Structure formats: C-alpha cells, structure tokens
C-alpha cells in the first residue's frame, strides 16, 4: 500500500504486510545505492506486527517506480547468490566424493 501525496509522486511511504527486517533492510540498502534516491528509511510500527513501512524520497522520478526497480534488482541479486551457493555446494560434494574414492583405493 502506498501512502503519499496525490500531487507529489517523488515522496511516498510504502506499507508492506507480512515482512520484517530481512526484506526492509535489504530494500533500504539497494535503494540507497540508487542515485535517484534522496532519502530512504524504514520502520516497523510494532514488533508483534508483521508490517514494514518504507519511506522513500527521490530526486525527481516517481517513488513507486524507483521502489519497483530496486526490488527487481534485489531479486536479481538474490538469484545470483542462490546460483553461486548451489554451484559451490555441487562442487563441494563432488570434491568430497572424489576424495572418498581416493581414500577407498589406498
């Protein structure tokens, strides 16, 4: 849900339900790397409530477009990390299997 001015699309607060610090802090980090962002921060209204509010102010682009771009970039980063991790696990298992075969032959 977006809370913002109808006349100023460069400044908005976005409420995201069923999320916590994991998404909010990651999104904040990615948003603050974007040169179009003048300010970005987040709050969690109450610890028992699974909701985050992300406040975003941009230098000119619509806040919702900048948030969408940042979340897409975050998704690409997570996919890259997942792929790298999966490859490392496969390589580690293959190396251990080869080492076990060498031990059995000796």
Automatic annotation (TrEMBL):
Residues annotated as domain DNA-directed RNA polymerase RBP11-like dimerisation: 12-82
One of the Pfam families matching this protein, by short name: RNA_pol_L_2
A molecular function GO annotation: DNA-directed RNA polymerase activity
Localization (cell): Nucleus
Biological processes per GO annotation: transcription by RNA polymerase III; transcription elongation by RNA polymerase I
InterPro entries, sorted: RBP11-like, RBP11-like_dimer, RNAP_AC19, Rpo11-like
CDD domains referenced in this protein's UniProt entry, alphabetically: RNAP_I_III_AC19
Domain of life: Eukaryota
Sequence similarity: Belongs to the archaeal Rpo11/eukaryotic RPB11/RPC19 RNA polymerase subunit family.
Protein name as annotated: DNA-directed RNA polymerases I and III subunit RPAC2
């Amino acid at each position: 849900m977006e809370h913002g001015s109808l006349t100023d699309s460069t400044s908005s607060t976005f409420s995201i339900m069923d999320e916590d610090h994991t998404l909010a802090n990651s999104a904040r980090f990615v948003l603050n790397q974007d040169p179009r962002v003048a300010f970005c921060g987040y709050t969690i209204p109450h610890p028992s409530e699974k909701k985050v509010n992300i406040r975003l102010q941009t230098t000119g682009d619509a806040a919702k477009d900048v948030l969408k771009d940042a979340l897409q970039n975050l998704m690409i980063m997570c996919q890259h990390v997942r792929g790298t991790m999966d490859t490392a696990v496969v390589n580690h298992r293959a190396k251990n299997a080869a080492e076990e075969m060498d031990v059995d032959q000796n």
